[in-house]
Amino acid sequence: MTADTADTVDTTLAATVAGLRAVRRRRQILVVAGMALLVLVAGTGALLIGAAGLTPGQAIAGAVGLGDKGDVFIIQRLRLPRIEAAVVVGAAFGLAGALFQSTLRNPLASPDILGISSGASLGAVTGLLALGMSGVALSGLAFAGAGLVALAIWLLAWRKGLHSIRFVLVGVGFAYLCSSMVAWAMARAEENEAAGVLIWTVGSVSDIRGEQLTLVAAGTLVLAVAVAVVARAQGPLSLGDDNARALGVHVDAARIGTLLLAVALVALATSAAGPIAFVALVAPAIARRLVNDGGAALVASAATGAALTLVADVVGQHALLGVAAPVGIVTGLVGAPYLLWLLATNEKRSR
């Protein structure tokens, strides 16, 4: 091969790679823009629809603090915080799910299945029933519960390194353990305490506002920035440990750092909204299917999680057989069939 031919091949290869990267960026932008549009449509519907129906003019005036005091109260104190909470919490779950699945290379690696969400629920239920906590203090104990369960899973799964299959299996065991303890606590609770406990078993964004909403939003933003810093390791990790090491990635350090951020995102979101089922499992799968570039689709997963949670909350409020239901009920109705389908398709592929 002559020098001119080699230069031509290199130029063609570089142009091909650049073209593929441009296509990948366009697909990511289109997916994120589509999810943002879905959030806008669902958010508009959530502002206008309800027991006190509002016109678009009334909603806009209420959002900026003008117009009737009743409209301002409905928009700024009730509906707008709920929309913001659904978007923030959904984005956190979606991003965390994408990190778990890409780092552990397992489509079933989700905080719902791994027991981290259940750990947060157990912490909150303990604080509510045994310590009489509420508000930010209760959310703090839920965060601690998720962190402790994640640490226990980590210690039991570590054998000269972190192995994804062992991590998932240990996590499933902790999920059953924490769920059983929450059920036992509910069985012993007084009737007037059961309603408060129920929210920490299904998940809801109806009561997240004020200081709590600010803390969750700020924490999610900080963690998202940290994820952007470590995101470059996701591509090599998806190729396997040996290939990642050959590319200069410190595999254990990269995996530990990524999973710590994922756990923090789940703990933060669950400490505010409870364990909203299957968002962290389904959102990354939808995002990866839409982007279809073989990557982790982190940004698209966060956008999909936000859209999925907000749409599910709107459906739960207004379209579920005429009975208001927490967002976790709706996501559970969507996510459970998806999980069964995922298990069935994985079993077929393994044959």
From TrEMBL:
Chain segments annotated as transmembrane: 29-49, 83-101, 113-131, 137-158, 165-186, 253-283, 295-315, 321-344
Location of this chain's protein in the cell: Cell membrane
InterPro entries: ABC_BtuC-like, ABC_transptr_permease_BtuC
CDD domains: TM_ABC_iron-siderophores_like
A Pfam family assignment: FecCD
Topology versus the membrane: Multi-pass membrane protein
Keyword line: Cell membrane, Membrane, Transmembrane, Transmembrane helix, Transport
Family assignment from sequence similarity: Belongs to the binding-protein-dependent transport system permease family. FecCD subfamily.
Annotated PANTHER family: FERRIC ENTEROBACTIN TRANSPORT SYSTEM PERMEASE PROTEIN, FERRIC ENTEROBACTIN TRANSPORT SYSTEM PERMEASE PROTEIN FEPG
Record protein name field: FecCD family ABC transporter permease
Natural source organism: Promicromonospora alba
